[in-house]
Each structure stands twice: as structure tokens, then as C-alpha cells.
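Review form for a predicted model. The reviewer records the input and the model, then writes brief findings.
Reviewer: anonymous (R2)
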Amino acid sequence: MKFQRTSRNRKFIPGRLQNAAEIFVSAIDDFTGGVLGSRGRKYTPFIGTLFIYILFMNLSGLIPFMKSPTQSWSTTFALAACVFLYVQYTAVKEMGFIGYIDHLLGRPRGFMALSVVFPVMMFFMHVISELVRPITLSLRLRSNIWGDDILLAVLAGFGIKGVPLYLFSTLLVIIASLVQAMVFCLLTTIYFALIMEDAEEGHVK
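Model under review:
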């Protein structure tokens, strides 16, 4: 609600909340633009939303008696499935349906186009590669957050003697939560970049 109120009541001289929101949006926009180029801006809302959502879910495990939702594979796989579907939609939109099938076949030309083995082999390799991505993307996030939560749970059982180590580990978990959210968004952006690169190569050919 604070972010929504800030966006509605924008001022020429921003306050602290508006300034923080503008810095965050600018950082995400620079990030996506640096990887995807000038066309990356339209993916800024999606990447930014992913980052905020994942980061807050990662950090929720620090609240007593709570667990991070991202330590559950059902949660991380749902996020990865959203990325997968959006990437496939973007691929079809950028290349066209026929162009996308041509991409999956490895863009065979000349003698290769007449060969059955090469296009079929490339098709299965591309399909398997696309299907594996959401699995690896979700398991990477889930495994790291699950390990962090288990570590804090074990240290909490040490009682007062384990407080210094617990506080130090909490700092590491906060950093790890931030890094894991960034890695998820970075890989998502790279998936979009690969699609755009293939689409541009297809247009050139």
C-alpha cells in the first residue's frame, strides 16, 4: 500500500519512500536493459515483481515460527513455471509459430534441411533443454533457502550459547536471500536474452 501511495502521489522533490522506489525501479530497469538491450524495458515490471516477491518470501523465514515459502518446491516450481510460460510466449511472439518450430529444429538449411536425423535430433535437444530449465531454476532456489532455514533452526536449538553464531548466520542468510533472488531474476533475464538473440538471427537469415 505504501508503494502504491508513493506512485500516486509523486512529487518533483521526492521523499524518502518515493526516492527509494525510484532507485529500485531504476536499478531493475538498468539491469534488464543491460542484458536485453533497448527492448528490455518492457520486461522490467515482470523481473522487478519476481525479485520483490522472491526476496520477501526468502526473508520471511527469519520471522520466529515461520518458514520461507521458497523452501517448498511447489512454490519455487510455480514461479519457474510462470517464467517458462512467459519465455515460450515471448519466443512465439518474437519468431512467429513457424519461426519457433524452425528454431526448435535448429534452423536447418540446405542439405541439413533434407536430412531427417539432424532436425529431429535438434528438436528433441531443444525441447529437453527448455523443459529442464524450470526444474533446475526451481530446485536451485528451493535447495538454497531450505538449507538456510535448516541452519538457523539448528542454531536456534543451541540456546543462549549459540546466540552469537545465530546472529552471524542470520546476517549470512539475509545476504543469501538477496543473492538467490538476484540469481533467479538473472537467469530469467538470460532466458529472455537467448530468445531475442535467436529471433534476431532468424530475421537476419
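Findings: The chain has a mean pLDDT of 82.
Further findings: DSSP finds eight helices and no strands in the chain.
Recommendation: see findings above.
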